[in-house]
């Protein structure tokens, strides 16, 4: 009886520690660059968001993504912007250009694009939205590209080059940004060799 109870406890502990991605035979941390906190509901960003001085020549509401700096700026106007820490594409997966937010989704489903499946054929063809989903709490889709600005359950990856080209924020930060952004918002992704002006925190 005691042994049977011990086996039952061990089985329950195993299931509790196995996220939905592991149960399907793969670990999303291998795909999305997450660390030990990947299967949690996320945590605080190691780079706190803050209002900064940012005299960019863009209309209020524009999103600027500085890939080299690993920061996202939401232009507020009057020389100010809201700055967020982000994770960006790893080597070979960075990009630049101008897009627009064409869709917004809360706890979005994830359907890996064909390019990603070609590189990693073991991926699921579809994952329902939720805390274990690699897109996190919110997603903003960029034009007709495969890229998104989305959340992550791995806050330790913020400030790093880790994704396949998508821009990731913590779930708290992406939820905040999502509430401030509309479909049609202009998104400017700066190239790696062109650093944006570094904002200075307002005192």
Write up what this structure looks like:
With 203 residues, the protein is of the alpha+beta class. The chain has a single domain, classed as L,D-transpeptidase catalytic domain-like (Beta Barrel), CATH 2.40.440. The protein has five helices and twelve strands. It has a ten-stranded mixed beta sheet, with helices on one face. The N terminus and C terminus are likely disordered.
Give a brief rundown of this model:
This protein is an alpha+beta fold and 203 residues long.
Helix content: 10-25%
The parts where pLDDT drops under 50 for at least 5 residues are 1-41, 196-203
Order of secondary-structure elements: HHHEEEEEEHEEEEHEE
Number of strands: 12
Q: How much of the residues is beta strand, in percent?
A: 25-35%
Query: Which CATH architecture is right?
Result: Beta Barrel
Major sheet details: 10 strands, mixed
For the terminal residues, how far apart are their CA atoms? 65 Å
Average the pLDDT over all residues and give the rounded result: 78
Kindly provide the name of the CATH class.
Mainly Beta
Overall shape: it is globular
